[in-house]
Amino acid sequence: MTRVQAAAASDDVPLVSTINAIDGSWQTDANAVIPLSALPGRVRVIAMFYSGCHMACPVTVEAMQWIEKTINPATAGVTQFVLVTLDPGGDTVEALREFRTEQRLSARWTLLRGNRLTTRELADSLGISFHHDAVRLTHTAAIVVVGADGQIHSRHTTLRPDLREVVNAVESLALAETKARQSETTTRAKKE
Q1: Tell me, what's the pLDDT at 8?
Q2: Domain CATH for 174
Q3: What are phi and psi of 157, to 5 degrees?
Q4: Greatest CA separation for the chain
């Protein structure tokens, strides 16, 4: 039983709170291979999808695009939007690149594909359920706000979350991350 399954069975068991600890490499739509810890941005807005989805995924991507347009400019400068495919067998690098073009995703977006094991582990960590059979892929939808340290700060798990709530979570985390970096810089300067 995974920690997510255990958490679903008991409110006393916490969900995995960091994604940076997930081993494995991820391939971007630019064909680079990176670990999750190398994702750009101090604030990451993450969702899982697959390019052939015509139900939940378009709604999630549209919501994330609205968030991107709505966050304040200072927050936008430290925020990265990440889509991770639930279908690494079907969503090739070329398919992800085509999806980026079709959706007109900006340079602040990273599209990733892992292998089946790392995809399952990330989905579990983010609290996303999915089942892939010979006919279709079914899944839950979530937008997850994650810090640069991989800590999950908020999960918005309805198909149509309160997007103002997500924007507030992104902006609050961006402010906290900026203050923490300024404090680290000040501490380092005092030591030198």
Answers
A1: 38
A2: 3.40.30.10
A3: -105, 10
A4: 61
